[in-house]
Amino acid sequence: MAKVKKMYVCRECGYDASKWLGKCPSCGAWNSFAEEVVAAPSSVPALVASRAIEPARPQKVQDIECGKTVRLDTGNSEVNRVLGGGVVPGSLVLLGGEPGIGKSTLSLQLALTDNGMKTLYVSGEESAEQIRLRADRIGIHNQNCTVYTETLLENVVAQIEELKPHIVVIDSIQTMASSLLDSSPGSVSQIRECAATLLKYAKSTGTAIFIIGHITKEGTIAGPKVLEHIVDVVLQFEGDNNNIYRILRGIKNRFGATFEIGVFEMTGTGLKCVDNPSEILLTHYAEPLSGVAVGASVDGVRPYLIEVQALVSQAAYGTPQRNTTGFDSRRMNMLLAVVEKKVGLKMFQKDVFLNFAGGFKVADTGLDLAVIAAVVSSYYDTPLCDGICFAGEIGLSGEVRPAPRTEQRVAEAARLGFSTIVISGYAPKPQKVVEGIEVVRINSVGELARHIFNTQVEEQD
């Protein structure tokens, strides 16, 4: 009987060592080594290895023929938007997200969409009956969708070879295992081997493959970091289980840009595409409320308006509280310091709470002006002017810097019926004047107060 050989593999970068190490010499991660059983060498299943591939020849860059890439329509407008217009044949797409966020629902919707293509849904986590129950709830629109429950990689590749689908969904990569390795499913070596095999098959046959990845407690995709290097596209599915809205972000895309987002609404019949996020992120109140401001944000090339809510109250204890939901707490502390120094508000005596409507997480610096407007409004307990929104970045000297894509923000505010938008005075003049909205330009946060209130207010002690 052959002696079992073991080695230790880093979960972050895939570095292997003969003994356990506390710190990875390759990536510097601590406590990342896991024990793996090494089996006979070998590698790719016979179906993939048997495909003859002509050796590549070096050629000059100007001699390379580059045809137009034909993308496959997934049948989901938001997924197509994030992918850059559709999925590229022969690409390997990794979809990650927290448990219960809707990864399996979204992937099954892609397989069940009536887009005229043959799809194969491979599940290693659910039975065929469970998938049918979910399919009945979502709605079966694609009669060419095949469901296959299997965890052995060689059997999965054999079924793909037999059915020859256009799109394959693997749920999930952590449940797949190859018989060529003795380690358990979900281990570093199994994930790396399965992903590499699926990538080689996708490239050799032109089959688009979606694989679902689990998330660790740190919020990263489980398995070695090399998994994200192997795949062509990495998509992150974000959201809060307590809220109905989900965001799909592109973390990596070899066939397009990564600045697009897709917005979904979780309903009883699956995930519904949200074509106009501004409508769900704005609330119409019966009377004006203090501490509420509207900011014009841009994520990628998609502009939308979002409601910023702030609460400023007297600190009950010695150290004031600073709590944020959906916004970087360190940036909020910086903005509060700027307000205290440049506007003269005594923020060191106040508790400050900040929230974005819909549970959204926003990293756009162009919302700094809206955050300060909401804080000042709550500090004075005075509502802002009707029909006003904000777009501008705040510097440490209190200057209002231009927000990226200011023209798109102004156009979105005008489309939704806002009468005034406050932007940076340093922003370049727009090439096209937007009608129906007044553009107010300010150069510093000290000029903000006389534009956001109906009447001038006096500073409170």
Describe the structure in your own words:
The protein folds into 3 domains: 1-38; 73-275, 3-Layer(aba) Sandwich (Rossmann fold); 280-452, 2-Layer Sandwich (Ribosomal Protein S5, domain 2). The protein contains 12 helices and 21 strands. The protein has helices spanning 46-49, 77-83, 103-112, 128-138, 153-163, 188-205, 226-230, 277-281, 329-342, 368-380, 406-415, 449-452, and strands spanning 5-10, 16-17, 33-38, 92-97, 119-123, 145-149, 167-171, 208-213, 233-239, 245-253, 261-267, 270-273, 292-299, 302-314, 322-325, 350-356, 388-390, 393-394, 400-401, 420-424, 438-442. It starts with a strand and ends in a 9-residue tail after the last helix. Helix 9 (329-342) links the parallel strand 15 (322-325) and strand 16 (350-356). With 461 residues, the chain is of the alpha/beta class.
CA-based shape = globular
Going by CATH, what is the homologous superfamily of the largest domain?
A: P-loop containing nucleotide triphosphate hydrolases
User: Count the helices. How many?
Assistant: 12
Q: What value does the average pLDDT take?
A: 85
Radius of gyration using CA atoms only: 26 Å
Output the structural class: alpha/beta
> Beta fraction of the residues?
25-35%
Q: What is the CATH architecture annotation of the largest domain?
A: 3-Layer(aba) Sandwich
Residue stretches low in confidence (pLDDT < 50, at least 5 long) are: 41-50, 455-461
Query: Would you tell me which CATH topology of the largest domain applies?
Result: Rossmann fold
